[in-house]
Every structure is written in C-alpha cells, then in structure tokens.
C-alpha cells in the first residue's frame, strides 16, 4: 500500500462528502440550528453568566456538528449502498473512515469558528491564547467526529444514528461542565465526566479564553488519546459489523 | 490465462447457505453470465469475487490474485457495476466521475481526458453538468457503468445491469456491454433475463439455490431441450381445464386461456389425443404450431422453476 494513494483517497473522500452533504437537513437542524437555539435560550434566561458559557457553547456546537455529519456520511451512505463504492476502491478501510471523520471534523470546525465569532462579538468572550485555542478546537472536532463515526457504523438508519447520538449528546451537555462547573457536581458525576472527551474540551477552551492556563497540556494530551482510541474503535467496529 | 478461477467457493450468511461450493473458470476476454432466480446467490458470489464479502469456504482468484489474500490488487484490476446505482445524488455526472477517478488514483493530468472519452462512448456528454439524482434510470446505469471503467479495468462485474430499465434503455446498455466485450474486457454479469444472457454471453452458468446446475454455451443449453419440442394449439370454444387434458401424455402442459402448449416427445399421439378431447368438449382448433424450445424453456427445464414464479418474486422484492 502506498501512502500517496491513501492520502489521495482520503482527500477525495473529504472533498466529496463536504460537497455532497453540508446542506443535508440533519446537518442544518442538529448541527447548526440546535446549538444556536440552545445558546439563545440560555442567553435569554441568564444574560450575565454568558461570557462563562462561551467555551461550553463552542464545544457543544462542535459536538453536534461533527456527530450529525458522521450520521450522514457513514450511515446514510451505508444505507444507499454508496459506502460500498468506497470499499470497492483500492484504498484501506482505515483511510475510508479517516476521510469520513476528517470531513466531519471540517464541518464541525466551521461551525465552532462561527460560534466563536458570535461569542466574541456578542457575548463579550475573548480568546487569550489563540494558538492553543485552535489546537484544542481541532482535537475536539476530531475526537467527536470519531465518536460520531463509532455511533454511525453501529446502526443501520440515519435516524437511529441521531437517536443513539442523543443518548450521548444530551447527558454530555449537563455532565461536561458546560453550564455547571465540574467542581460543583457530586463526586460520582465528576468521575463520569472524566470519561467523556467533551469535559476536557470545555476545560481547555475555558483556559484558552481566560488568563489561566492550568491543565491545558494534560487536556490536549488526553484529547489526543481520545482521537486515536475512537478512530481505532470506529474502524474495528466497522470491520466487525461487516463480517456478520 | 484465466481471468477468474473459482474453486469450491461457499458463503453462509448466518444460517443461510447462499453459495454451496461452486467451481468454474472464466477465460480472459470471455463474457460469462450468471443466471438464476431471486436468492440464488448471484450477488453473494459477486461480492466474494470483488472483496466485499469473505467466503466461508473455498478459494477464488481474480486477475491472478487471491481475493482474500490480495484484495487490494484484485480491486485495482476490476470494475464493478453494483445492483443499486450507487453514485452520489448531489453531485453532477462530471463530479461523480472525477471523484471515482481520484479514488482509483488516476493521475490528475489524465482525469479529464479519460472522463471525456467515456462521456463520448456512453453518449453522456449533454448530461455532464446534471446532478445524478436528476438522471433517468437508464442514464444512471450508463453513468455507473462509465464510472466502473474509468481506471480501465481488465475485468468488469455487473450485477443485473439492465434490471428495471425500459426495453430501449436496456437494449442500449446491452449494445454498450457488447462493445466492451469486443474490446477484450472480461465480463462477469448476472441477470434474470434468459434472452439477455443468451445474446451477450459466451457461456452461461445456471445458479439455483447456491449450486451451479448447468454451465455451458447458450447454444448447448438450448440443445439440451431441443429433443422435446413444444406444440402450441389455439382453439375456439369453452376453455379447457387441466383435468380435461389428463389423457394427453406429455412432459409439461400449460393452459393459457384458449391457447395450449404441450411439451412432448411424441407430437402425433398428443395431437390425436387433443383432437379427441376437443371433439368431446366442442372446441374448435384454430391453429397448431410446433415451437423450437428457447433458452427460456431450457432454463425452466433445468432449474425446475417457472418463469412466472421468478417474476412474481422479483416484483414482490421491489
Ligand atoms: N448480507 C446478507 N446477510 C444475510 N443474508 C444475506 C445477505 N446477502 C444475501 N443474503 C441471503 O443469501 C441468499 C442469496 O442472496 P443473493 O443476494 O446472493 O441472491 P441473488 O441471486 O443475487 O438474488 P436477486 O436476484 O434477488 O438479486 C438469500 O437467501 C439472501 O437472503
Ligand atoms: Mg442479486
């Protein structure tokens, strides 16, 4: 196998997925509208604490954007037989999934950048450490896109992917320190939160948006670990499901 | 050299035995037809040969490479037209072909030239900028076939290429397939349509419930049934029931309104029997013809399945 061929395949898949699917209804509703509506409804109820909320809103938008994109590029394509076309091409299964995950990553990044702009323009948020902020944003998008892929390879229908994703997504909104700081939660829930990648994203983004920089390095290392683990898991699950 | 070598190949999906140890070889440049009713295992066989499903037994070599050991090498040498037209709805014909070219590592300097050649051959030029979703079924099939040929594969697999097409589109597609065969490409195709297989294929394998029950040239398959001719009788008067016709000695009798077809070794005896029955029931013979059995009859005789039955199943599946 040649690396150049694999990379060529990966970029072709990313480009095609973005071109074909960014306007699909689930992406618009779950990926873009939902996070914005949620942010708006909170800003109406609690106009003061908004600056604090910014890191959480940005990471949440990334979570929803990436996972909805994966539901389409994987589950939808599997359903209509288009994924089979990729499997027929001389590229590895890993490259196919990496392409899918990176397509979702880019979609998630675009949404999170829009969210960041909104937050800085209207909520008075500020990015204090831009380079780290970008690194964390990318890791967040990759990790959650891969999480979306893990869900997407395990189900047959797009709505199943959305439903199953919601089992993760909604608890994550409340567990991962978006609205309620981790320190104020019961110990048991804190442990649970530490098992979820979003917790580290929120923590790291918050650090990049305030003067403090505690834990940032640890957070990025852990997020990187999640990226590797989840990509690996999605490939393994895909292979297993195909055999049965 | 053989383009495809299949030895004792089997596939079991859970409890379902889809393919039961089939063996055959396909020569380079041959057009090989896999003919069989629904659920016979045609698609499963293709899936194993193109690397989409792992065989549960036996081996297969495509373009000289073992399909399990070297799937990547196999994939480089084959083109596949799947049962479903699975290009991307939201992309145009051109964008679809360009994407597939990239998947097959065609150098970017050559992509446009290759796409143009195929658009030309497949008469798709005027649809270049149309979204795949907006194409008719026939045009979709043609685009999918073009996509399968971009990397100039030497072996092409087609799973029911003409199913669901109207007569004209199907004929056009068959012409294209013939043209492809003339250019020396090895073709493995599956079909429900007996006459289609007869027109296109050098050899046909009849697949029934995962077993190859017959493998021969279309002519030879026809000649299998040649010695039991069919007489077709049209008559006026009340419809005759199978009960009325019990006394006729024949391998097969079909009644369709006022038309009767009798397959029998002994035409004379069957005819005189029928005349007796007709007199008794007051039926008037209008026309008598002897028919040379076609491939369809060969198929029915060899598989023991009726064509109606197959068509019905196909409809039910859709
Ligand atoms: N992915 C699968 N999982 C489980 N069973 C399967 C799978 N694919 C096919 N089968 C079963 O294997 C048998 C053969 O199916 P296959 O699709 O190969 O038949 P076919 O000859 O292509 O039929 P058709 O003319 O309907 O396309 C059927 O009983 C089918 O239900
Ligand atoms: Mg089939």
Outline the secondary-structure elements.
The complex is a heterodimer of chains A (244) and B (318).
Chain A: H1 3-21, H2 25-45, H3 50-80, H4 82-88, H5 93-122, H6 130-153, H7 158-175, H8 187-193, H9 197-208, H10 216-243
Chain B: E1 2-13, E2 16-27, E3 31-35, H1 42-49, E4 57-62, E5 65-66, H2 71-77, E6 78-81, H3 93-103, H4 108-121, H5 137-149, E7 155-159, H6 167-182, E8 186-191, H7 194-200, E9 203-208, E10 211-216, H8 218-226, E11 230-236, E12 252-256, E13 259-263, H9 267-281, E14 284-291, H10 295-303, H11 307-317
Helix pairs in contact in B: 3-4, 3-5, 8-10
Description:
The complex is a heterodimer of chains A (about 240) and B (about 325). Helices cover about 80% and strands about 0% of the residues of chain A. Chain A contains ten helices and no strands. Chain A has helices at about 5-20, 25-45, 50-80, 80-90, 95-120, 130-155, 160-175, 185-195, 195-210, 215-244. In chain A, helix 3 (about 50-80) runs antiparallel to helix 5. Chain B has about 325 residues and is of the alpha/beta class. Chain B folds into two domains: about 1-220, Rossmann fold, CATH 3.40.50.300; about 230-315, 2-Layer Sandwich (Alpha-Beta Plaits). In chain B, the strands form three sheets. Chain B has a six-stranded mixed sheet, sandwiched between helices. Chain B has a four-stranded antiparallel sheet with strand order 2-1-4-5, covered by helices on one side. In chain B, a hairpin with a 2-residue loop joins strand 1 (about 1-15) and strand 2 (about 15-25). In chain B, helix 3 packs across helix 4, helix 3 (about 95-105) packs parallel to helix 5 (about 135-150) and helix 8 crosses helix 10 (about 295-305). Chain B is elongated and about 80 Å long. Classes of the chains: A mainly alpha (about 240), B alpha/beta (about 325). The interface of A and B includes residues 81 and 244 of A. The structure holds adenosine-5'-triphosphate and magnesium ion (MG).
